[in-house]
Design a protein that fits this description.
By secondary structure, this protein is mostly helical. About 85% of the residues lie in helices and about 0% in strands. The chain has eight helices and no strands. The radius of gyration is 22 Å and the shape is elongated.
Length: about 210
């Protein structure tokens, strides 16, 4: 079967080169690893919050019980609301990667520009209304203590949406390493800010939200 496929390919195009299996695997890994690492950075950041935020809240002067309660507001209420809004932009990103790749393969720069403009426009339409997330949260959770974290995190919905769309565009253009590098740098900044701002008594859990 393998010889038959090689013969058919050679018959269709005499100039075509048959790539070896190892070469194809290396190309796939070169594309897949950065994409996978980029997706892993957000869960890694969430796990680092688990280690940093409660400890730094205690340093800020909160009791263990209060620190646990505030951390619950952040991870159990604010973060899920952000992720809920990001479902739509994440779905757009999945469809955007092959679409951009196709236009790139065809050398159609105008189509790439048009797709990028539409993607960012739709992302803004989806994420901008989510600035009102704290109002929705007040109805859903009925937890006044979560207001500060939710209000701050709701601003991050816009940036997360733009991040997802731009990541999809870069991956579609074959620039898969750029989102990974940016996410690593952002992760380092987030850890430093979480460590610093969460320990400020006047900020507390709001500092962790600002860092995110």
């Amino acid at each position: 079967l393998k010889r038959k496929l090689h013969a058919e390919i050679a018959a269709q195009d005499d100039t075509a080169e048959v790539e070896g299996a190892w070469h194809i695997i290396k190309r796939m890994l070169r594309l897949a690893l950065p994409v996978s690492l980029s997706s892993l950075m957000l869960p890694i950041g969430a796990n680092l919050d688990l280690l940093i935020v409660p400890q730094r809240l205690e340093v800020a002067g909160f009791s263990v019980r209060t620190a646990t309660e505030l951390f619950g507001y952040l991870t159990g209420m604010a973060v899920p609301l952000v992720n809920l809004a990001a479902i739509f932009t994440a779905a757009m990103t999945i469809s955007l990667v092959p679409s951009i790749s196709e236009s790139r393969a065809l050398g159609n720069l105008d189509a790439i520009r048009e797709k990028i403009k539409i993607a960012f426009r739709v992302a803004m339409i989806i994420t901008c209304p989510c600035f009102m997330a704290e109002k929705v949260a007040a109805l859903i959770y009925n937890a006044p203590g979560a207001a500060a974290a939710i209000q701050t995190m709701s601003v991050g919905i816009l940036f997360l949406g733009l991040h997802q769309i731009s990541t999809g565009i870069l991956q579609g253009l074959g620039k898969t390493s750029i989102p990974v590098i940016n996410m690593i740098l952002a992760g380092v900044v987030k850890v430093v800010l979480s460590w610093t701002l969460t320990a400020v008594p006047s900020l507390g859990v709001k500092g962790a939200s600002m860092a995110t």
